[in-house]
Amino acid sequence: MKATDAMRSTRAELLRLRRWPAVWVTLGAWTALALMFGYVFGYLAYKTGDNSFSNEGQTMYSVLHDLMPVSVPDVLLQGMPMFGGALMMVLGAIVAGSGYGWGTWKTVFTQGPSRAATLAGSLAATTVFVVGTVLFTLVLYLGVSLTIAVTESQDVVWPSAGSLAESTLAGVLVLEMWALAGFALGTLARGPALSVGLGLVWALVVENLLRGVGNLLGAVEALTHVLPGTAAGSLVGSIIGVDAGGGTPGVVDTISGTQAAWTVLAYVVALPLLSLALVRRRDVAS
Amino acid sequence: MTELMVQTEGLTKRYGRGDHSRLAVDGVSMTVRRGEVYGFLGPNGAGKTTTLRMMLGLVRPTAGSVSVLGRPAGRPDVTARVGALVEGPGFYPYLSGRDNLLVMARYRGLGEAAVADALERVDLASRGADRFKSYSLGMKQRLGVASALMGDPELIVLDEPTNGLDPAGMADMRALIVALARAGQTVLLSSHLLAEVQEICDRVGVIADGRLLRESTVADLRGHASLRLRAEPLDRALAVASRVAGDDAVRLEQDRLALDLPAAAAPELVRQLVADQVDVLELAVVERTLEEVFFEMTNHPIPETEEAVR
Fold first, then answer.
1. Residues of B with CB below 8 A from A108's CB?
2. Who among B59, B93, B147 is closest to A107 (CB)?
3. Domains in chain B, please, with CATH?
4. Distance from CA of B112 to the nearest CA of A (A)
5. Residue B10 pLDDT
6. Which residues of A are less than 8 Å from B87 in CB distance?
7. Which pLDDT belongs to residue A191?
């Protein structure tokens, strides 16, 4: 694999992803959901004093505290294990899977760059979007929380650079892992529909069920400790803490933060290798 | 500079294993030479596309070998010098035609000028800004050809390029291929339309049921021309014809005589007939079409096809 070929492939993929409405719909859905669960519901609850689901058992002070700039590192991460991961999985699955039905991988594989270089380019372009999404969300949150602080005449206390960096890095890791999982599924299924469907059922349903069963069966519990959802949830949980009453869906403390970080990292390395093995070996017959 | 652009030796592809396996391509040995338009001819499902896919490195052969530009097929340095449209154009439906080419140009390391030039050559410049999914089948096909032309590759592989084109589009496509050949590019063209290949190809390979039945020039494949004669009285005409062409070279076909003679022999034949008081009613030079040859070949497969190939 030549570096220039991987670079060309990355530029080509960035162009076609940038102009793909489906990518912006997916990222737009993340932004809208993140904004709603991160700030809109909390702020409405604070203003109206309702006991809605998102502020159950919390004092008004703590609700407002969550909306302040100092809480941005926590808010940034709280939606990522669950719907953030699910949406990134959709992104990865459509990036990898759609090309088989359209016959575009066939066209791309006859352009010059090797399949390895092509895949590297596609993964790099996807990663650019994932990192971009996390950074955009961070900036958006800082802006929104600052606006709320000023509006509510609160003292503006910024989070430490260390905690911002930690949250950003963890966020990138978690979202990247799910995007790569979607990419591998899309490659495996050679289409977006089946891979998105199976991936979502896995991430949103099966892992939660397994964690439930794991409380009763030791063997299942050992299995859940190495699953991606558990790892992502535990990584986030170790940073933002897990509420006693269940708290944010998907955020758990099943394994330690260190173990969780290494597990997520292992997936981030292994999933592209799986995609690469599939893409290099296969006949492209459609 | 290699003179053989493509060379396959015993190229074979078997899909599946065991009892349910299917031999899609069976021991195909063919060569495409520099600067020629090579017609790869065969009915649908004969193995044309699978053979082309192996040449492009998309499909791995079960047995045999294929080299392109003197190197093993599918290597990046080979693919970069080959332009291809295989089994229908595969493009991003949400991108415009121009953006689709721009993406492929980036993969190839080409600039925007190559894109504009390619669109111009297939007459799509005015529709370049429209989305691919809004294109007609013919326009999609032309965009596929444009993508194959980008960067002036040494070898252009076109799989059924006239699929979905109307008669005018087909004529344009033929003109384009002829222009490419004149400019020195080698074109490997597959088709199930014999008339198309007959007009523009230098050499053809005929494939059916995965086996290459013959490979030769179009002229050789069609064989020599013959003469058809209608004259009265028939018995005297037959006698004269036998004298001129030889007994074995004359056959009676209903009320006509078929003579295995080249067109150049026609004046002498007529002179002899007239000298013998025979009335010549009609004399025609008849050439077999590739279609006739083709059906002869595919309907009655010659047992020693291996010999015919070599």
1. 104, 107
2. B147
3. 4-81+154-221 (3.40.50.300), 224-286 (3.30.70)
4. 13
5. 94
6. 103, 106
7. 92
Specify the pTM.
0.87
Interface of A with B (CB under 8 A): 2, 4-5, 8-9, 11-12, 15-16, 19-22, 102-114, 117-118, 283-285
Residue B173: predicted pLDDT: 87
Best A95, A100, A107 member to test B by mutation, with max B CBs in 10 Å, is A107
Q: Which residues of chain B fall below pLDDT 50?
A: 301-310
Strand partners, B39: B189, B204
Strands B186-191 and B155-159: parallel
Kindly report the length of chain B. Answer: 310
Count up the domains in chain A and report the number: 1
Per-residue model confidence as pLDDT tens digits over A59-69: 777 888 889 99
Domain-located, residue A94: yes
Residues of chain A with pLDDT under 50: 245
Q: Give the tens place of pLDDT for each residue, B33-75.
A: 999 999 998 888 889 999 999 999 999 999 999 999 999 998 8
Q: Which tens digit of pLDDT belongs to each residue from B186-196? A: 999 998 877 77
Domain extent, residue A87, equals 3-281
CB B204 within 8 A of CB B40: yes
How far apart (Å, rounded) are the C-alpha atoms in residues B33 and B74?
A: 19
Distances (CA, A) of B264 to B19, B227, B252, B253, B260: 56, 10, 21, 22, 12
Nearest-by-Cβ selection for A104 from B58, B90, B109? B90
**ipTM of this model?**
0.89
For residue B103, list chain A residues with Cβ-Cβ distance below 8 A. Answer: 12, 15-16
By Cβ distance, the residue of B76, B89, B93 closest to A113 is: B76
Say if strands B4-15 and B31-33 run parallel, antiparallel, or are unpaired.
antiparallel
Contact predicate A262/A238, CB 8 Å: no
**Beta strand B37-41 pairing with B203-208:** parallel
Q: How far is B280 from chain A (nearest CA, A)?
A: 59
Candidate from B53, B87, B99 with C-beta closest to A19: B99
Helix axes A3-18, A115-151, angle to 10 degrees: 50
Name the phi and psi angles at B54, rounded to 5: -70, -35
Q: What is the pLDDT of residue A179?
A: 96
- In this complex, the residue of B57, B93, B109 whose CB is nearest that of residue A102 is B93
Beta B250-253 vs B71-72: how paired, if at all? unpaired
Residue of chain B with shortest Cα separation from A4: B109
Exposed e or buried b per residue across A154-184, where buried means at least 16 C-beta atoms within 10 angstroms of its C-beta: beeeebeeeebeebbebbbbbbbbbbbbbbb
Of residues B28, B35, B48, the one with CA closest to residue B5: B35
CA distance B64 to B169: 37
Is A286 contained in some domain? no
Altogether, the residues listed in chain A come to a count of: 286
Of the residues B51, B58, B95, B99, the best mutation for testing chain A's interface (the one with the most A CB atoms within 10 Å of its CB) is B58
